[in-house]
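Bench log. Compound arrived from synthesis this morning; before running ITC I wanted a structural hypothesis for how alpha-D-galactopyranose sits in the protein. Inputs:
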Amino acid sequence: MDMKLRTCLILSALAGGLLLSGCQALSPSGSRVTREAWGKTKEGTPVQLFTLHNARGAEAKISNYGGLVVSLKMPDRNGKFGDVVLGYDKIDGYLKDTPYFGALIGRYGNRIARGKFTLDGASYTLATNNYPNALHGGVKGFDKVVWEPTIVGRPEGPGLKLQYVSRDGEEGYPGTLTVTAVYILTEDNGLKLEFTATTDKDTILNLTHHSYFNLAGKGDILGHEVMMPADRFTPVDSTLIPTGELKPVDGTPFDFRKSTAIGARINQDDEQLKFGKGYDHNWVFTKAPDQFTLLASVYEPTTGRTLEVLSTEPGLQFYSGNFLDGTITGKGKWTYQFRNGFCMEPQHFPDSPNQPNFPTVVLKPGQVYHNTIVYRFSAK
Ligand code: GLA
């Protein structure tokens, strides 16, 4: 990034974006952040939409409502830019019933069995919004709250910082939790998410990101080829709660150690695939705690687009869009049919608060939670 641009981004950050029009003129490379009004929440709070542009022409639109990634434009093998995430054109769709398109998920991404857990001897009850379990932070999770936005400039590229203070008891979780999420559109065509959090009481936390990707920008995702260097996954019961076993993927349709089309085995006669209506499982990565590693690589043959998912998290929920059923019409009048998008959600394992053998999700006062996720795009 050139000096002028870096200065521009820093000035923009300091001025809360006021110098942005000047910045656009100042930045011949094209890397910048712009903001626009994006309507109001159900409660009438105005929200904004931020557009991050990097010098290579990639673009990410992010709202401070729910930390939503509303669109993400990346080049194909011919340099043609296309939106690779599902969602809605306007905020209205997100205010109705959305299956977490592009959302920042918290406090607890994925399921907690029957919405119950104990911590330090006290029992907690959460809303069972995915009967009979709790899912993705509750009725009004982090995907449905308004975050405090600040435009930031980083050496890696233009960014947006979002902050939210979740009060003690919100959605049934203990402790006042202060969460920061920084989104950076890196100059190597990555969307980097850096989550940090602190608490004033022991609590549980599992933040993740829930974009539905379709690297072709149309149709189903069955031809996308997935590689995940994971030897094990967490099998589930019929309500998608892990049984506690870490099962070897060897010899199962869950073995993606060699790149394989999503559709190659998805309809096999397999109890786990039946429970998930396809893939909706957590893969387990053998690595040191907090080690930043590649969790998945996805290739779409018709466009050449490739997505690499990297993270410090020990698990990855790969969800093949099995609950999309043609009832939602999203961006550009695209009706989202069965398996028209897939999610790659780096995370701690589902139901960890009730599974003593899974890595802990407890955050204590004085500790700082860190979680970094990168979705990096290229084409071949
Ligand atoms: C997650 C879950 C899925 C589904 C989607 C939202 O990825 O694992 O089962 O609930 O969210 O529809």
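What the model suggests: The chain is about 10% helix and 40% strand. The chain has one domain: 31-379.
ITC booked for Thursday regardless.
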